[in-house]
């Protein structure tokens, strides 16, 4: 499934993410700057923060309570903020462009 990350420097990185993995893994495998994933996907570090476009909110699902709590700690938290390690890659995400906010 093809997904594009738009970095804080406005660089566009298109990746071919494997279904069943997470968006964070796809970012790390492609060295997307700004996705550090310090906790390795345990929903504990919030260094995998991305902003999902409205059109893909449904496809990416709702954040869990734990994820919401962590997002609330971020100063640059927006309405569509998500932790990319909590988003499963599925064919429904084809063509999605997510923004990587400045840290
Ligand atoms: Fe740590 Fe996502 S990788 S919260």
From TrEMBL:
GO terms for biological process: P450-containing electron transport chain. Keywords: 2Fe-2S, Iron, Iron-sulfur, Metal-binding. Its cofactor is [2Fe-2S] cluster. PROSITE patterns: 2FE2S_FER_2, ADX. CDD domains: fer2. It comes from the Bacteria. Residues 1-103 form the 2Fe-2S ferredoxin-type domain. One of its GO terms (molecular function) is metal ion binding. It holds the Pfam family Fer2. Gene3D superfamilies: 3.10.20.30. Belongs to the adrenodoxin/putidaredoxin family. This is 2Fe-2S iron-sulfur cluster binding domain-containing protein. It comes from Emcibacter nanhaiensis.
């Amino acid at each position: 499934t093809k997904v594009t990350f738009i970095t804080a420097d406005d660089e566009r990185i298109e990746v071919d993410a494997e279904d069943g993995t997470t968006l964070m893994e796809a970012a790390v495998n492609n060295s997307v700057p700004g996705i550090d994933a310090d906790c390795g996907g345990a929903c504990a570090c919030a260094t995998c923060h991305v902003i999902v476009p409205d059109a893909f909110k449904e496809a990416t699902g709702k954040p869990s309570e734990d994820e919401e709590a962590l997002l609330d700690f971020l100063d640059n938290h927006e309405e569509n903020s998500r932790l990319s390690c909590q988003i499963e890659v599925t064919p429904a995400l084809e063509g999605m462009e997510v923004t990587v906010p400045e840290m």
